[in-house]
Amino acid sequence: MQRLLKLYQKYVQFMQGRYGRFDFLNKTLLIIGLIISLFNRWIPYSIGNLLTLFILSIIFYRFFSKRIYPRSNENQKYLRMVEKIKQKDFSIDRSYRQFKCPSCKQKMRAPSGKGKIKVTCKKCHTQFIKKV
């Protein structure tokens, strides 16, 4: 028990003044490294091993870095970037209705709530009636 306590005290002393956080950026890098190591078999010339080692070295560098504020700023920039991506609405715009041309399958849209409208396809010039 004494050895364990002494080892813990050495660890605490070593980590004083270091970043030492397993933040969101480190977690994402770890997941990417694990995915690359899983698909390592299909990546030629051991590039997967090098990428995995590179990503792990970045994680260790960030974890043991004494430059706390730059590491924290990196994480904040990453979180802002992820938040911007999450905020983008990739769904269909609610004020338009999307449909396909019956002959060429070209995607089209029309304002919703207009009732029955006559639509002309821009690609094949087929005319048809669609309820929107």
TrEMBL record:
<protein>
    <recommendedName>
        <fullName>Zn-finger containing protein</fullName>
    </recommendedName>
</protein>
<feature type="transmembrane region" description="Helical">
    <location>
        <begin position="45"/>
        <end position="64"/>
    </location>
</feature>
<feature type="transmembrane region" description="Helical">
    <location>
        <begin position="21"/>
        <end position="39"/>
    </location>
</feature>
<keyword id="KW-0812">Transmembrane</keyword>
<keyword id="KW-0472">Membrane</keyword>
<keyword id="KW-1133">Transmembrane helix</keyword>
